[in-house]
Specification:
alpha/beta; Rossmann fold; Nucleotidyltransferase, domain 5; 2 domains; eight-stranded mixed sheet; six-stranded mixed sheet; binds adenosine-5'-diphosphate; binds magnesium ion
Length: about 475
């Protein structure tokens, strides 16, 4: 009798799970969706087209992973094409979340979901997989996007994570999958780009799309400390705060030097683009001592950013110690130091202990005097070109998206001007005036482009030596 009772109870619970996704998540995975996630899960059953524009960390990818699991368990025939800017993003973020939550379910549900790196699918009680209940990762790589077109399932649930950064080509093909009466689509993302399919969907006035908007400030899933840091660093009015925290599309017409789209997309650029390219491993350092400023160290191998770190409240000798540690652990070939001000001491000491280093004086004029006011402006321009020409990528195995966005946001906030026809990048003093903290990571990163200008110092003496002009391009100590 009691077995039957239990059976019956379970059937009742499962019947409710089918209709009530937040209940399913809480009951079967033991996690309480935030009110924002609950809204996503509820709306999904009501609206066939959902566009969700949101700040960082509110639990977007987890909400999608819950929908995936729910869809596979409770829909008889369903295909779930899912996409994100790259296949790695799908595997490492979305599939990982699915795996994480599947593990938390009771065994009789867990064994119904099979997660591999290539697909996620439903398997029946006898362990047979079903070809009619699968999740297929789709990226806009040539050929793959086309494959989206030929899907014939009763129900198609298309999920797009980080939709702002997904290639336009994929959306063209997706339109074709939305014709069936049981087709659903969810676009979700951080609104980095004021253009494209995601942006247009979020501005839809025809009622085709149900729109949700979430600020990180309202999410119990987001650390308030991070929000305060972003506010202190960029100000509430900045585009960066708007996009990352408030989940609002950037205001147009801001006179920033670097292109936000090109900066952001570097993270998602597949690393194989650079396969076979053996770039030198270069480090850049921007020094600080005590107070608000941080010392920053960035390393790139060729055009791949490998390592990003910063520290506060260390004296210069402690900073030298940390650079030495990075030298031993990361094995960079040479480090470029900004020697205007504090950096000279760091440079002298590094030279003394035998770490290959180059002094860069960003306030000197450049080889291209007709184009740039100072070397600093030329370094910023070289950095911009590397992103604009889509050469820059990020080692996203070792650097999180959040970490990279610290660098990208600093690069993206700085404005520019022309002075007698020459490029002039906004000074730190001017940044400070409009409430933006010193872009230390950006400066450290740009230091490495001194290499591309052929700036290299010939180390001779370990004494502090006044800077003088070098080969006309560089700023050589020696
Ligand atoms: N309701 C929740 N309760 C506890 N942890 C959660 C919840 N939602 C998400 N998480 C966890 O918080 C982290 C960030 O969530 P994620 O979905 O990656 O955020 P987003 O995609 O919005 O940046 C992940 O580790 C995720 O598993
Ligand atoms: Mg996410």
């Amino acid at each position: 009798m009691s077995i039957n009772n239990n059976q019956e109870k379970l059937m009742t619970i499962l019947a409710r799970c089918k209709k009530d996704v937040p209940y399913f998540v809480e009951k079967m995975m033991g996690v309480k969706p935030t009110f924002q996630q609950k809204e996503i899960l509820d709306m999904y059953l009501i609206h066939s087209r959902l566009v969700i524009v949101s700040g960082h960390g509110i639990g977007k990818s987890s909400a999608l992973s819950w929908l995936i699991i729910h869809a596979l368990l409770f829909t008889k025939e369903i295909t779930v094409p899912c996409s994100a800017p790259t296949s790695a993003a799908i595997r490492d973020i979305l599939f990982r979340e699915v795996r994480k939550w599947v593990e938390k379910m009771p065994i009789y549900l867990k064994k119904q979901i099979e997660v591999t790196t290539k697909y996620i699918r439903w398997v029946d009680e006898t362990g047979n997989p079903s070809a009619n209940r699968t999740v297929l990762p789709k990226t806009a790589k040539v050929g793959q996007a086309q494959a989206l077109a030929g899907m014939h399932s009763d129900v198609v649930l298309t999920l797009i994570d980080e939709a702002s950064a997904v290639e336009p080509a994929i959306f063209e093909v997706l339109e074709g999958t939305l014709t069936g009466k049981n087709s659903r689509i969810i676009l979700i993302g951080n609104p980095t780009v004021r253009a494209g399919y995601f942006y247009e969907a979020s501005r839809d006035k025809t009622g085709l799309w149900k729109k949700l908007h979430f600020s990180s400030e309202d999410s119990p899933n987001v650390d308030m400390k991070w929000i305060r840091e972003m506010e202190d660093k960029y100000g509430r009015e900045s585009n960066i705060f708007k996009v990352r925290v408030l989940g609002e599309f950037p205001a147009s017409g801001e006179n920033t030097f670097m292109n936000a789209i090109n900066l952001d997309s570097a993270y998602d650029r597949e690393q194989e683009v650079h396969e076979g390219f053996q770039g030198k491993k270069l480090a850049g350092f921007d020094p600080a001592r005590f107070g608000n400023d941080a010392s920053a160290l960035v390393i790139r191998s060729g055009f791949s950013i490998d390592y990003i770190t910063q520290w506060r409240n260390k004296d210069l000798m402690e900073s030298v110690g940390l650079i030495k540690q990075a030298y031993l652990e990361q094995a960079f070939e040479v480090i470029f130091i900004d020697v205007v001000g504090l950096g000279a001491g760091v440079y002298d000491r590094l030279k003394e202990i035998g770490i290959p280093c180059v002094a860069v004086n960003v306030s000197e004029s450049t080889s291209s005097k007709e184009k740039y006011v100072r070397l600093r402006d030329e370094l910023w321009d070289l950095g911009k070109i590397a992103f604009d020409e889509k050469r820059m990528s990020v080692n996203n195995k070792s650097i999180s998206r959040k970490k990279f966005s610290e660098l990208a946001d600093e690069l993206g906030v700085v404005r520019y001007d022309y002075q007698n026809g020459k490029l002039k990048i906004e000074s730190k003093a001017d940044l400070k005036k409009r409430g933006v903290q010193s872009p230390n990571l950006a400066d450290a990163f740009l230091m490495t482009f001194a290499n591309d200008l052929g700036i290299s110092s010939v180390v001779q003496k370990a004494k502090a030596i006044p800077l003088h002009r070098g080969n006309g391009r560089g700023h050589i100590l020696g």
